[in-house]
Amino acid sequence: MTIQRMDNVLIVVEDLDAVISFFVELGMELEGRGPVEGRWVERVIGLDDVRQDVAMLRTPDGHSRIELAMFHTPKAIGVVPKDAQANTLGIRRVMFAVDDIEDVVARLRAHGAELVGEVAQYEEVYRLCYVRGPEGIVVGLAEQLT
Asked: What is the maximum span of the chain, computed from C-alpha positions, in angstroms?
């Protein structure tokens, strides 16, 4: 048996509205938003007294999703360092293919995003960069040249 697809990536956040705005500016579409609580979610994630708000965003092609969760109870636990570098263990970024990397970076800067390094070109194939957005979330951007 094989997997069918990658359904979504979960990002736990403190400011749900700011992070939704960031991903919508990137070009994702908000599918839905609402509260999640109850024994079923507690059983799935292994926490008691869960009360959270979640939002699901999808890419324009409909194939990929990001789920955002803001916990009311139990309170979210911060990680150290908050703005982890690229060589820190764990998930470091989510990569998106974009049409115009300069335009996307400029639009995301209006939402507080900053380049982690710089926009760099890999041979004659891609222009790439990492952008750190709200709450330290890092997204990679890749513009295919050929």
From this structure: 52
Residue listed under structure tokens 């890419």: 59
Q: Are 82 and 136 in contact (CB under 8 A)?
A: yes
* CA 90, chain centre distance (Å): 14
Cβ pair 25, 107 in contact under 8 A: yes
Q: How far is CA 93 from CA 57, 66, 129, in A?
A: 16, 12, 11
Tell me phi and psi for residue 88, to 5 degrees.
Answer: -80, 135
Which tens digit of pLDDT belongs to each residue from 76-91? 998 878 888 888 888 8
**Helices (H), strands (E): how many in the chain?**
3, 9
pTM higher than 0.90 for the full model? Answer: yes
